[in-house]
Amino acid sequence: MGEMGVNSTEAVHQLVISGDVCGSGRLGMRGKLRMREAMYEAVHGAFERVGVRGGLHLEDRGDGVLAALPPQTPPSLMAGLWVDELHQRLRQGNEGRAEPLRMRVAMHAGPVSHDGRGLVGRAVDLACRLCDSDVAKRTMERAQGVPLLLVVSDSFYRDVVAEGGRYIEPEHYRRARVTAKETDEAAWFHVPRMSVPPLPPDTPGGRPGEAGGRAGGGPSAEGEGADRGADRGRSREAGRGERPERNAPDVKYLFEHIGGDNLVVEGNTVHGGFTGIRKEYRAGTGEGSGDE
């Protein structure tokens, strides 16, 4: 178990990260040991890369981890550089591996208590529920071959992700409802290097039959913001292509991405795979630059 940042039952506002390995139940004993070694190598390496050491609370969950970050840790650092570093380490570690390591990771911030045995609080419960949700598991089933899925709570998306920042791509997130036990919450899903996560077509809060589409029914403040961000992102990546009109289901557009990838926009549905582009956004400006 990692070092405790606060050894008190008094709740402190902290960022909670819940991580779980996909398909670990199918592994034998030696496979589980190799999986755990690779998981900790990737997770610890990502924490070291962003400079998080002292004050980090890290619990072992068998085929996963539960972490609470020191209160002074910038959440944008974790949603940006940490996620990017974890994704890269998983990709590199999976090269030539017969049993590729794939992880679901969830983030939520809120009051957290440490009782000497572990983490306690609704923030902990929600992070774990998002990570273990049916939507997250089914999305990873549809995203075969990708090493990482990130799920963040609605409040974390509004407060951190939507503001943008280094390695943060808010327009590539999609919202869906997560319902499990007493949890009924909106959450945002993201697969690094994919234009949109392949959410199941019957995802609660999503549009029926629109795989990987933007979830949510009517317009909302954060939804409209995500719409505008997605339009800006597609416009930047489209080269000389014309931006598609909204609410035009009979029109199909084909854009050529930077790097040679193709993006098809059919009505309000975006069809695209890996962009191969990492973007850096400046908070509040909507401006960004991409690099391979």
Brief digest:
The protein is of the alpha+beta class. It has helices spanning 29-49, 75-94, 122-131, 134-142, 154-159, 221-237; strands at residues 12-21, 57-60, 64-68, 103-114, 119-120, 148-153, 174-180, 183-190, 252-256, 262-266, 269-271, 278-281, 288-291.
Description:
The protein has 292 residues and is α+β, with helices and mostly antiparallel strands. Helix content is 28%, strand content 26%. The chain has six helices and 13 strands. Mean pLDDT is 76; it is low at 1-6 and 206-292. A hairpin with a 6-residue loop joins strand 12 and strand 13.
Task: Describe how the helices and strands are arranged.
Blueprint: E1 12-21, H1 29-49, E2 57-60, E3 64-68, H2 75-94, E4 103-114, E5 119-120, H3 122-131, H4 134-142, E6 148-153, H5 154-159, E7 174-180, E8 183-190, H6 221-237, E9 252-256, E10 262-266, E11 269-271, E12 278-281, E13 288-291
Parallel strand pairs: 4-6
Antiparallel strand pairs: 1-3, 1-4, 2-3, 4-5, 6-8, 7-8, 9-10, 10-11, 12-13
Helix pairs in contact: 1-2
Region (Disordered): 189-252, 268-292
Biased composition (Gly residues): 206-220
Biased composition (Basic and acidic residues): 225-252
